[in-house]
Sequence to fold (610 residues):
Amino acid sequence: MFEQPVIAFENVTKTFGNVHAVVDNNLAVKAGEFLSILGPSGCGKTTSLRMMAGFEQPSSGAVSIQGQNMTGVPAFLRPVNMVFQHYALFPHLNVADNVSYGLRQRRPKPADAELAKSVADALEMVRLSGYEKRRSYELSGGQQQRVALARALINRPAVLLLDEPLAALDRKLRREMQIELQNLQRNLGITFLLVTHDQEEALSMSDRVCVMREGRIVQIGSPRELYDKPINSYVAGFVGKANFFVGPKADTVLCVRPELLEISATRKTLPQGLADAFDVTVLNRIFLGEHTEYLVRHESLGDFTVLSPRKSEHASGVFDIGDKAAVGWHKSAAQILTTT
Amino acid sequence: MRIYATLVYLFLYFPIALIVGFSFNAGKYAMDWQGFSLAWYSKAFSNPLILQALITSLIIAGMTALLSAIIGTMTALGLERVTGRTRTIFDALIYISIMVPGIVIGISTLIAFVTLFNMVNPLLLSLWNIKIEMGIWTVIAAHVLFNLAVVCLLVRARLTGMDRSLVEASEDLYATPMGTFRQVVLPLLMPSILAGFLLSFTFSFEDFIITFFVAGPNVTLPIYVFSSIRRGVTPEINAVGTVVLLSSLLLLVIAQVILQRSEKIAVAKS
Fold:
């Protein structure tokens, strides 16, 4: 059955002077999904988000939300809410007044008791009960993040827009917030649209990931699809790690993921049934805990990386810098991709 | 170096200290210490001329501060949206009105007012048989002229330091442009506006030069002090001077505290 997208771009282009930030974009966000827009800085992902929120208007094309054309509709009339990169909590208001800000704009204004109840529920949802009277600058980064989430989610938006929300947090906190965001999204059933340059973040949280480059959508699909069947070498290189070798035709490369490579002391000790095997010299070794990452050199293929899992080290062996080794891969591990 | 500094400060503040000290003199002559007394304060504040001058000064300072705060804030907000040459020109004009000596503002506003009166008074006289002349309002106009620049600079400093995403967050949370201004922009600017109000009040209250040119027959406190000094310094004048000095100082300290507190909050936030 055809389902109407909750946000739809129709040939949206946005230019700033000579810069084409977004080019002929036809993004469609499905209701209830967790979609991430992934790309390096300057790829147009933040501009796309700002056109959804209403902070920017497309130069051409149209944005619609829940089937309604949003051309010329200002931000305060759009049924979406945003979590800003640096949270943008109002410094002159306490946590409760920050969280209830959206509800207090409604006419007629909700009663005080009703507001207090909604704020208490929202703060409980982000595990900040009892923080009502605090000021935003008294909170830690993670707590500010949660207040920003509560302030947006209390309005039950059609879509929650998240602009690199975890970029300012340290690694451990980021991991916790990723899980918390995912849980919130599943429990509330609200569509989440996250913009990030962190591929790990996009892959771990989203139902679908949209990879952007220079204003255009390169590929959109589930994290597994993007990882296993990248449309070109750009996606393969941006999503996960990849080794690229000279391809069979012009403008093509042979792509092999480092973790799909087998490594052993000699060709004979490599597993059976490999499509190709090469003699290499180990250039570098990085211990990563569950994996060991080797940088190896082959005289005609060049330098590439191999991830050797801890579990199979008893069979493959451990190599030192300068050691000779053999590397090979199964036929299914190698993909021929077009370069861009 | 330390001796120089001491001498400089002594030179700057010794006369002021003398005035404050001798305002508590019991004796009749300004520089002849006869013992501590508050008599001159009660005498000063029961003198109807001094009271009238004080009221005039307070009205002028209050109106100047209010108008400067409103117009200065509006100027700062307006300049936010102006770019390029127009912006440069307006910026320069604002700095000029602060740096120009009071005597220049005094003379030029006097000439401007006189020219204006000469132009419109014949018409007003023939139409309604009235004419406009120098008064409290001309003093207020001249004071607002440079105090609005002070407010404008203070508010602009705050505006440039303000996180643009706060305004966007407010709009995103369904607040209309007017609602955003009232609930976010104005409260965040309030410390600067208040500080600007207090500074304008102080500058206007203690101003002599500009007032002297455009006051017409009106007597403000500084003008009263000046005219009575020509008849010799009395402890009464010392008492008035001390009150003006201390209230000005108090207002300046309050303005400074407000600005610093709001800055601390802004720093703690980022």
User: Anything to note?
Assistant: The CA atoms of residues 206 and 244 of chain B lie 7 Å apart. Chain B has a mean pLDDT of 86. Chain B has eleven helices and no strands. The two ends of chain B are 40 Å apart (CA to CA).
